[in-house]
Specification:
Main location: membrane
Keywords: Cell outer membrane, Membrane, Receptor, TonB box, Transmembrane, Transmembrane beta strand, Transport
Protein name: TonB-dependent receptor
Subcellular location: Cell outer membrane
Organism: Gluconobacter potus
Shape: globular
């Protein structure tokens, strides 16, 4: 962990928020969390041409600027040349060197080690494990907006359909962007819907691509887990070209392979470890990107970028006993020892961006078009359709089961200008713009063998009744005005209106302010409202997951089965946020920020209105699903289905504290120390009911909303560099706070109960990350290190609450991962 700046903003909203944060600290009673801003190093990175406030807004080659607090930021502001230390909003900066310094080959897992307010799922299963999701501030991944060079990134087509806090999300899969092409990342921890539109409730992640017109960088990362599995290999390469001193082309690509890990408990049917359900899926990903800009004139620049990624991934399902095939000799001869169905994903993801920007009559202008698409094709492998075999005598073992397509096309015009007038002593920055976005979502049918008769076992195919294509248009306009009320008092006002052809109109606003009492003490604060429009997937997705003795489904909210059981049309989620804090340097070089926040989120979208047994059987049949033989007699939670609904109102409160301090040891080098703490708590304020008056949530789903994310996260440590920068040693501790879940019983008097659950605490965990770097030459360096080097694991689930005895760790949380320790060798070269 090298350098990261986290200048958090400060609220003028005062006592109620600070009091709430104090209560959070008392409730947690152990420690706190927010990513400690790893220390400021003398790291540099390229600044996009549009970021410099000069008479020529599109300078020829990208300009190198200092990192840390001196970095010019583009997220959360419409002004040019704003430095991070002067930002009116809280912006964390994560450099490419920081990302590679974690030793992780994926962007998602790198950020999770650097940002305490950012979490990832503990583990995954089914299709949800095959998309890399992130969450900010303990909210669903859909509440975080991802931009690339300030432009909205398209989302994945793969909905996270399994139970847990991420259920229902179709976020941006950030690992489909090559890590080699990332210059730095700006993370705005602030409600920003008024500036950027839907989804920016928890914050904004803006990925800035490299724009250097020279150089070549190569990197190899090799690692393995403490259990001896999960081998990972990453190869990364990028380089830049100069276009006649008037522009640049930067090209890069990644290759990443990850093997399966297996963390399952013994299957209680066989008392062996043959069931490999629990663990990291296998995946291979190839991704490439190109970024280019060219100054047509001194005041007009053309720019373009493109990314493409292909992923093949496989996830294990529950093991099927040989006895299940006793009546089907065709399959029994193929699987004499039983079988494990596999979900296999082949994904193609691409995005194209093109535009022009420049200045005219004092106005900065930017006209752009962004087209993105994600296509996911799921196969069911090593499986059966025993009903089809009985009827036809055929014995397929692989099935084309499901396919999904997500398309987004955004066209935008942005304008900004700084005015100076005789009636106001300070400059007034005015920005505005408009955009049109087309969104489409499609569900394709599986092969007939995957959905007819008893369907493909483990991962049934999509039947024609649940396939289709849906689209909508989104038009938006915004206005942003910023100025000073006094010499040291900034203020920023933003407003936005959007129209969705399926869910109607939204209006959002934001007011931010900052007052600098001195160069070493300032306060900042924000009050805003925001929204998340239901995604097309949340409105129309339906699917069925089948286990050996159970099945669960999600049906579309507007389907016959859902409407017959009290479903209603989805509404946008809406939020009201208040944030504030201080920025202080109590002694020279000690930088401290303390911030508090409160997010009231209304009409949250999650599956609700769960129905069970015969009622679920009827609803699934009404929607065209084929169910296993005998399932009409399954009881309780053996057979269940639900639909997406506006289920609840919640309140999320938190506190972020960061501190950085450098120490100079003279001829013995120097060290950079950092600490960051994040406290986060979500409470249920109101639960909705269906049109029949039934509660939409049970205790298990309330826990997904309120206690599935860590109550706290701490990151602290330091990095020592030798006097001539030949050696670097980094050690950091991460503490993950407690999560609480409501577990289903699989034995005893409450077996498969839908109203009685076991309250399970996943207790806090400490992990240690360490690395040693040796700079072999000025161009070559090697790092050996490890994450979670003492191989800590989540708390073990009681045996009576494990389906078939297998899920030893609870997957539906976002605390410590279940892979254990990870040890790596990283070699890089820069030319």
């Amino acid at each position: 962990m090298l350098t990261q700046l986290s200048l958090r903003h400060v609220t003028l909203l005062g006592t109620s928020l600070l009091g709430s944060a104090f209560v959070l600290m008392m409730d947690e009673g152990r420690a706190a969390t927010t990513q400690s801003v790893p220390v400021q190093h003398k790291q540099t990175h390229a600044t996009p041409p549009s970021r410099k406030a000069t008479s020529r807004p599109v300078p020829k080659p990208p300009v190198e600027v200092a990192g840390g607090s001196e970095a010019v930021v583009v997220t959360g502001t419409r002004e040019f040349g704003k430095k991070a230390r002067d930002s009116i909003a809280p912006v964390d900066i994560v450099t490419n060197r920081q990302l590679t310094g974690t030793g992780q080959p994926t962007l998602r897992d790198s950020l999770a080690l650097l940002l305490p307010s950012l979490t990832v799922p503990t583990g995954g299963f089914d299709a949800g494990a095959l998309t890399d999701t992130i969450s900010l501030r303990g909210l669903n991944p859909n509440e975080t907006l991802v931009l690339v060079d300030g432009k909205r990134r398209h989302t994945t087509a793969n909905i996270y359909a399994d139970g847990g806090p991420a259920q229902g999300s179709t976020p941006v899969d950030i690992d489909m962007i090559p890590m080699s092409m990332i210059d730095h990342i700006e993370v705005l921890r602030d409600g920003a819907s008024a500036q950027y539109g839907s989804d920016a409730i928890a914050g904004v992640v803006n990925i800035i691509l490299k724009k250097q017109n020279h150089g070549l960088t190569m990197r190899s990362n090799t690692g393995i887990t403490s259990e001896g599995d999960g081998f990972q290999q990453g190869v990364f390469i990028d380089g830049g070209l100069n276009l006649n001193n008037r522009g640049f082309v930067h090209i890069g690509g990644d290759f990443v392979h990850q093997d399966h890990t297996v963390r399952s408990g013994a299957d209680n049917r066989t008392n062996t470890y043959v069931n490999q359900l629990l663990g990291q899926p296998e995946q291979t990903r190839e991704s490439v990107a190109i970024n280019a800009g060219y100054n047509i004139t001194d005041n007009v620049q053309a720019y373009a970028s493109a990314t493409y990624a292909h992923r093949h991934a496989e996830s294990y399902q529950n093991y099927r006993l040989p006895s299940t095939l006793a009546s089907y000799p065709g399959y029994a001869s193929i699987y004499p020892y039983g079988y494990t169905p596999i979900e296999a994903l082949n994904e193609d993801d691409y995005e194209l961006t093109a535009g022009f920007r420049g200045t005219l009559a004092g106005w900065h202008w930017d006209v752009s078009s962004v087209f993105g698409r994600d296509y996911d094709a799921f196969d069911t492998e090593s499986s059966t359709n025993v009903g089809l075999y009985t009827a036809t005598g055929q014995t397929p073992t692989s099935f084309a089961a499901q396919s999904y397509n997500d398309t987004q096309w955004t066209n935008s015009v942005d304008l900004s200008r700084k005015f100076r007038t005789s009636f106001w002593p300070y400059a007034i920055n005015v920005a505005g713009g408009a955009s049109y976005r087309y969104e489409a979502y499609a569900i394709g049918t599986g092969s007939p063998a995957s959905y007819t008769y008893s369907s493909s076992d483990g991962f049934p195919g999509t039947n024609p009744a649940n396939a289709g294509k849906w689209s909508r248009d989104v038009a938006a306009g915004y206005l942003d005005i910023s100025t000073n009320l006094m010499k040291h008092w900034q203020i920023d006002l933003a407003g936005r209106v959007e129209h969705y052809t399926d869910v109607g109109n939204t209006k959002t606003g934001k007011i931010s302010t900052r007052y600098d009492f001195s160069p070493r003490f300032a306060i900042r604060g924000t009050f805003s409202n925001g929204f998340h429009a239901p995604t097309l997937a949340q409105e129309h997705y339906s699917a069925l997951s089948v286990s050996p003795t159970a099945a669960s489904g999600i049906i579309a909210a507007n389907s016959a089965g859902a409407l017959a059981n009290g479903a209603s049309t989805l509404k946008p989620e809406s939020s009201t946020s208040a944030e504030g804090g201080i920025i202080v340097e109590p002694i020279k070089k000690l930088h401290v920020t303390v911030d508090v926040y409160q997010i009231d989120l209304r009409d949250r979208i999650m599956p609700g209105g769960t129905i069970y047994g015969s009622q679920a059987y009827s609803a699934l049949q009404a929607d065209g699903f084929n169910l296993p033989a005998g399932s009409e007699n399954w009881t309780g939670s053996q057979l269940a289905t639900h639909w997406f609904a506006n289920v609840a109102n919640t309140r999320t409160q938190g506190l972020d504290l960061t501190a950085t301090y450098p120490t100079d040891f003279g001829r013995y080098g120097h060290a950079d120390w950092d600490v960051a703490i994040n406290l986060n708590r979500t409470r249920l304020r109101h639960q909705a009911t269906s049109t029949t008056g039934a509660a939409l949530l049970n205790a298990q789903y309330i826990a997904y909303l309120t206690t599935a994310y860590p109550r706290s996260k701490i990151i602290f440590g330091g990095t020592w560099h030798s006097a001539r920068n030949k050696w670097a040693v980094s050690v950091h501790e991460i503490r993950y706070g407690e999560t609480t879940s409501q577990l289903t019983y699989y034995t005893g008097p409450y077996t498969y109960s839908t109203s009685h659950f076991l309250e399970f605490q996943n207790v806090p965990k400490w992990t240690t990350n360490a690395s040693v770097t040796y700079n072999i030459t000025p161009k070559w360096s090697a790092t050996i290190g490890g994450n979670n080097i003492f191989a800590k694991f989540p708390s073990v689930v009681p045996e009576g609450n494990r389906y078939l005895g297998v899920p030893k760790y609870y997957m539906s949380t976002s605390q410590l991962g279940m892979s254990g320790g990870y040890y790596y060798l990283d070699v890089s070269a820069r030319f």
